[in-house]
Amino acid sequence: MAIKILIVDNEKEIRLILINLVSACGEGLYNIEEAESVESGVKKINSWLPDIVLLDVEMNDGSGFDLLRQIPNPGFQLIFTTAHNKYAIQAFKFSAIDYLLKPIDPVELKNSLQRATLNINNLSIQQQLSILMQQISDKHVTERQIVIKDIDKTYFIKMNDILYCEAEGSYTKFYITNSEPVFVSRNLHFYEELLAPAGFFRTHHSCLVNPSKIKIYDRKTDSGTLILEGGYTVPVSQRKKDFVLQVLENK
């Protein structure tokens, strides 16, 4: 059975481009419909029940987020399409919801469709959307969450439960309060950009630390060591020592 894909975008030219690009990704694999607005998108989703929605962020009668607020129980995989919008992209990263920057790259589109197809039966999208809408509606939520995924599972983690993150080659290892470590297939720089606004900082080229979890600064070594909640120890590099001390003084 063909996978049902709905393209929601207010620009007819972009819809046509996306229809052609999606069709080229798999002949006969996709059944494609389109909508030009928030209103028509909501009607089409409720009547047609798509498997995957390609959703524009900004439309004439509102935003993609306005559309999602009108779909209480989404049963589809979601891929946002957007011009560069730093805040929106930050929200997508927190919620691990896929997005494509315009102009759409055909290879990235194909990869996104493959990921969405593999996850059609994954029921975590509603929780991911909840975290996305939290990010969009309030930048100062104290119990903000982040979504991370390993090869088997999706984790919904309160940011304040993260002790620290450690680089493992091109992977990142999350150390979390009362949980086993989680390996994620993104590098530490990705999460540094994401978590820095919440105060996370590098103590070492391979470690990103939640300052609220620091209990002791141990000066026994030249540059020192941080001891976190749960007894975890994190190295401080000589280059980062002064910065780390400054952060601790201002805690």
- Overall tally of structural domains: 2
What's the CATH topology name of the largest domain? Rossmann fold
Large-scale geometry: elongated
Tally of helical segments: 8
Proportion of residues in helical segments? 25-40%
Q: Distance between the terminal alpha carbons, to the nearest Å?
A: 57 Å
Q: Tell me the radius of gyration.
A: 21 Å
- For the record, what is the CATH homologous superfamily label of the largest domain? Response regulator
Number of strand segments? 17
Biggest sheet record: 5 strands, parallel
The CATH class label of the largest domain is Alpha Beta
Average pLDDT = 91
Beta-strand content estimate = 25-35%
Task: Please give the CATH architecture of the largest domain.
Answer: 3-Layer(aba) Sandwich
For the largest beta sheet, what order do the strands appear in spatially?
2-1-3-6-7
Alpha-beta content class? alpha/beta
Note poorly predicted spans.
none
| Oligomer status | single chain
Order of helices and strands: EHEHEEEHEHEHHEEEEEHEEEEEH
Describe the structure.
- The protein is of the alpha/beta class and 251 residues long.
- The chain has two domains: 3-136, Rossmann fold; 160-249, OB fold (Dihydrolipoamide Acetyltransferase, E2P), CATH 2.40.50.1020.
- It has eight helices and 17 strands.
- Strands 2-1-3-6-7 form a five-stranded parallel β-sheet, with helices on both faces.
- α4 packs antiparallel against α6 (125-137).
- The mean pLDDT is 91.
